[in-house]
Write a structure and sequence with these properties.
- There is one protein chain.
- By secondary structure, the protein is of the alpha+beta class.
- It has a single domain (6-174), classed as Alpha-Beta Complex (Aldehyde Oxidoreductase, domain 3), CATH 3.90.1170.40.
- Helices cover 29% and strands 32% of the residues.
- The chain contains four helices and nine strands.
- It has helices at residues 21-28, 61-78, 110-127, 161-167, and strands at 9-15, 35-42, 46-47, 50-59, 84-90, 92-95, 99-107, 130-136, 145-146.
- The strands form two sheets. Strands 3, 4, 6, 8 and 9 form a five-stranded antiparallel beta sheet that branches. A four-stranded mixed beta sheet has the order 1-5-7-2, sandwiched between helices.
- It is elongated, with a radius of gyration of 18 Å.
- The protein starts with 8 loop residues before the first strand and ends in an 8-residue tail after the last helix.
- It is found in: Cytoplasm, Cytosol.
Length: 175
């Protein structure tokens, strides 16, 4: 394979199905690269002192994909040796320990791929219109956290706990 056959590629996916670390890491492997760096963001079982049951993600999908493409372009400007970039983000319900985001970057050397992965996740959380809701042990959502607000998209917040409880047909329906 000559260098022209392995042109840099970006793999961006927002989906409701379970994410695969193997699938994402395989997307960025290149014979021209000695480093593949990964970030895997998983659902932990606590937030602000409360036990978390699961996370729920929503996105302004078309804008989120556009913003992630911008992040990929920025990475290539900052680290020209980066070969491939994959950013997969899960939407909908994400149970404890499952991945909500996987980012993989390949480059000839580790420094560039490690720095690029950190830049990707930090910028994604700051600028991409994806919102997360923590569902805690009280069967109530905590505030929705805008994990990214971009291009005039307003952060969205959940209703008050009282309003949420009054709208539930049965609290167990959140499990």
């Amino acid at each position: 394979m000559d260098e022209s056959e392995d042109v840099p590629k970006d793999f961006i996916k927002l989906k409701s199905e379970k994410l695969s670390v193997d699938e994402v890491s395989e997307l960025v492997i290149s014979p021209y690269c000695g480093a593949v760096s990964l970030f895997i963001g998983t659902t932990r079982n606590n937030f602000e002192g409360k036990k978390v049951i699961r996370l729920e993600y929503e996105a302004y999908t078309s804008m989120a994909e556009t913003e992630i493409k911008k992040i990929c372009r920025d990475v290539r400007q900052k680290w020209p040796s980066v070969k491939h970039i994959a950013v997969h983000h899960r939407l909908g319900v994400v149970p404890i320990t499952e991945a909500s985001v996987i980012i993989a970057v390949s480059s000839p050397h580790r420094t560039e791929s490690l720095e690029a992965v950190m830049y990707c996740i930090n910028t994604l959380k700051a600028s991409v219109p994806i919102w997360k809701k923590n569902i805690n042990t009280y069967l109530l959502s905590t505030k929705r956290q805008p994990i990214l607000t971009a291009g005039g998209v307003q952060p969205r917040y959940c209703q008050s706990q009282h309003q949420l409880v009054s709208q539930l047909s049965h609290p167990a329906s959140l499990l």
